[in-house]
């Protein structure tokens, strides 16, 4: 009796999730913020985006930073990934030199991926969320 | 490309001990619990409520100012109150994620059990589920 009830619940869950998956109303990630910063020599564009994911058990906010060459290769190369609880982490991007991208953020976030160098560009991150200026490079 | 960290983060700041402090204007967990209890013996209501967890649905807490942690916690509360097992709750989220939520490959996933769902989501769903089971659901 208990097994058949559990099977029924599983069936209903699969049905509901399937309807959710199939219908257009269940959208995928939505970009809620973005910005970009060009390197002083114009060779690179640093692009940051915050995407909001939704759906049953799938709420998430991710901010991703990409590098994109202005000439040649046109694909975006992911260099940083933050997972956060706030809609904004006050992320800023700055180029101290043409080969150094500095990223700062002021709201709590977890860095899930960090590249320290990409195609000759050094990437550093400063966490300003707790008043300190911890840096990783 | 030099990679400093592609690590399963500790996810400390993503898993709140009291997610109700991040509820925004979303309904209190007791509302999710009550709807779950209603759905326990009402299949139509259950499917309707599950559908409301879609993006922008009435039970999607994020557009109402809640954090992702709270939204996933609330889903766990609902699923527990509705009589699902924890595995069913997590599998439901994982099936949805497989087809609709294409996270970047660098997001730490709850492999091997729920390979399409981020670790933080699994923890927050589990926290909501367990809180409902033990009568310790948080309140706004």
Can you summarize this structure?
The complex is a heterodimer of chains A (137) and B (140). In chain A, 15% of the residues lie in helices and 50% in strands. With 137 residues, chain A is α+β, with helices and mostly antiparallel strands.
Straight-line N-to-C gap of chain A: 59 Å
Strands ordered across the widest β-sheet of chain B:
2-3
Q: Structural class of chain A, please?
A: alpha+beta
What separation lies between the terminal Cα atoms of chain B? Answer: 45 Å
What Rg of chain A is obtained from the alpha carbons, in whole angstroms? 20 Å
Mean pLDDT of chain B: 91
Topology, element by element:
The complex is a heterodimer of chains A (137) and B (140).
Chain A: H1 2-22, E1 30-38, E2 44-53, E3 60-69, E4 77-84, E5 92-97, E6 100-105, E7 109-118, E8 121-127, E9 134-136
Parallel strand pairs in A: 6-8
Antiparallel strand pairs in A: 1-2, 2-3, 3-4, 4-7, 5-6, 7-8, 8-9
Chain B: E1 2-5, H1 29-39, H2 43-51, H3 68-81, H4 86-99, E2 109-110, E3 114-118, H5 119-134
Helix pairs in contact in B: 1-2, 1-3, 3-4, 3-5
Keywords:
heterodimer; A: 137 residues; alpha+beta; 9-stranded mixed β-sheet; B: 140 residues; mainly alpha; two-stranded antiparallel sheet; 5 helices; globular
What does this entry look like structurally?
The complex is a heterodimer of chains A (about 140) and B (about 140). Chain A is built from 1 helix and 9 strands. Chain A has about 140 residues and is α+β, with helices and mostly antiparallel strands. Chain A has one domain. In chain A, strands 1, 2, 3, 4, 5, 6, 7, 8 and 9 form a 9-stranded mixed sheet that branches. In chain A, a hairpin with a 6-residue loop joins strand 8 (about 120-125) and strand 9. The model of chain A has no long low-confidence stretch (mean pLDDT about 85). In chain B, strand 2 (about 110) and strand 3 (about 115-120) form a beta hairpin. Chain B has 5 helices and 3 strands. The termini of chain B are far apart. With about 140 residues, chain B is mainly α. Chain B has one domain (about 20-135). Chains A and B meet through helix 1, strand 3, strand 4 and strand 7 of A and strand 1, helix 2, helix 3, helix 4 and helix 5 of B. Strand 7 (about 110-120) of chain A pairs antiparallel with strand 1 (about 1-5) of chain B, so a sheet runs across the interface.
């Amino acid at each position: 009796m208990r097994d058949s009830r559990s099977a029924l619940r599983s069936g209903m869950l699969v049905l509901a999730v399937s309807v959710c998956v199939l219908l257009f109303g269940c959208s995928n990630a939505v970009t809620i913020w973005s910005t970009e910063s060009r390197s002083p020599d114009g060779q690179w564009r640093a692009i940051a985006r915050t995407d909001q994911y939704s759906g049953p058990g799938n709420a998430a906010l991710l901010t991703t930073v990409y590098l994109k060459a202005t000439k040649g290769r046109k694909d975006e190369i992911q260099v940083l990934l933050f997972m956060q609880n706030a809609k904004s982490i006050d992320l800023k991007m700055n180029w101290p030199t043409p080969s150094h991208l500095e990223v700062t953020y002021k709201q709590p976030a977890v860095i899930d991926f960090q590249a320290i160098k990409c195609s000759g560009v050094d990437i550093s991150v400063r966490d300003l969320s707790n008043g300190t200026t911890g840096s990783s490079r | 490309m030099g990679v400093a960290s592609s690590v399963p983060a500790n996810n400390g700041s993503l898993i709140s001990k009291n997610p109700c402090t991040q509820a925004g204007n979303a309904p209190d967990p007791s509302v999710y619990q009550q709807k779950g209890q209603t759905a326990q013996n009402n299949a139509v209501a259950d499917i309707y409520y599950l559908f409301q967890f879609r993006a922008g649905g009435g039970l999607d807490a994020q557009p109402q100012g809640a954090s992702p942690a709270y939204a996933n916690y609330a889903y766990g509360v609902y699923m527990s109150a509705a009589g699902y097992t924890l595995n069913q709750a997590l599998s439901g989220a994982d099936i949805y994620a497989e087809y609709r939520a294409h996270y970047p490959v660098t997001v730490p996933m709850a492999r091997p059990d729920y390979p399409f769902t981020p670790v933080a989501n699994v923890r927050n769903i589990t926290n909501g589920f367990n809180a409902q089971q033990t009568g310790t659901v948080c309140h706004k």
